[in-house]
């Protein structure tokens, strides 16, 4: 089985942070979003990955090659973002007839990966949501088989949202349906969507079973990214690297603090992730994600995203700041 991970999106809802960094490489609870996905799949036995890259794709390639030198990795360029269906179709020559597990590049979920992989059926991950109109939606029968999927329905017939996890056994069938979308120019909201290809497969006889994820950590926008960071820190307990230098400072767990970071006269936590080699002085930081090589001086920050190589001085409350930024509130 091969894993397909589309990571070509621009992450517009997380700008300005994503102007210089792919969304998949944003740190959360001590790891990147991408590492959460790859580690989960690799631990379950998958060792061949296809990454669909586009915006800042060279950073994805560099990160994967450095972090996972022993994995078999392929990189496919999606020059024009025309939807998830278009992205997956680009992998056809690399997949052939082998089973695939497609995981969207901003999807961190809590589920039994091995159980899904070993299932004799194609499987789609679902989660009950209050308002399914912003998601792909699955209509499921009494035996757990999916009868129909539709992308962002105006009047949903189900509240079971597709979470971005797709294990597909009949891959030749999948690529036939993707080709059909292009031939017939079938689009949802202006894009060739994977959901439409899956529905095509179901209409032609393919059987998909739903599996419910225990947790779905939304990393698509600032508010939900910070919530996911807090939840994952609570779940895994956080980690403070042994090289962190703390002088007259208080750390309130759970937090994740990277190697070489210096804390001086500072309170950090709870629910804070700080990258490597950052300096935080005379500050209070809580419920935030801070990048690497960032300097914070005399600030009070909560519910904030601050990129790498940034500098913030003075007093602030809630920020969303990209990389290579300098702000002085003095």
Write the layout of secondary structure elements.
Blueprint: E1 2-7, E2 27-28, E3 31-32, H1 33-43, E4 48-53, H2 57-67, E5 72-77, H3 84-89, H4 92-95, E6 100-103, E7 107-110, H5 113-118, E8 122-128, E9 136-140, E10 146-151, E11 160-168, H6 171-184, H7 194-203, E12 208-212, E13 215-218, H8 222-236, E14 239-240, E15 245-247, E16 250-251, E17 255-257, E18 262-264, E19 267-268, E20 272-274, E21 279-281, E22 284-286, E23 288-290, E24 295-297, E25 300-302, E26 305-306, E27 311-313, E28 320-321, E29 326-328
Parallel strand pairs: 1-4, 1-6, 4-5, 8-12, 14-17, 15-18, 16-19, 17-20, 18-21, 19-22, 20-23, 21-24, 22-25, 23-26, 24-27, 26-28, 27-29
Antiparallel strand pairs: 2-3, 6-11, 7-13, 8-11, 9-10
Helix pairs in contact: 6-7
Concise summary:
With 330 residues, the chain is α/β, with parallel strands linked by helices.
CATH superfamily of the largest domain: Spore Coat Polysaccharide Biosynthesis Protein SpsA, Chain A
Mean pLDDT across all residues, rounded?
89
The CATH topology of the largest domain is: Spore Coat Polysaccharide Biosynthesis Protein SpsA, Chain A
Task: Quickly give the structural class.
Answer: alpha/beta
| Residues in β-strands, percent | 25-35%
Distance between the termini: 56 Å
The count of strands amounts to: 29
Under CATH at level 1, the class of the largest domain stands as Alpha Beta
How many helical stretches? 8
Shape: elongated
Largest sheet: 7 strands, mixed
Structural domain tally: 2
Provide the spatial order of strands within the biggest beta sheet: 5-4-1-6-11-8-12
CATH architectural label of the largest domain:
Alpha-Beta Complex
Work out the radius of gyration. Answer: 21 Å
| Portion of residues within helices | 10-25%
Q: Note poorly predicted spans.
A: none
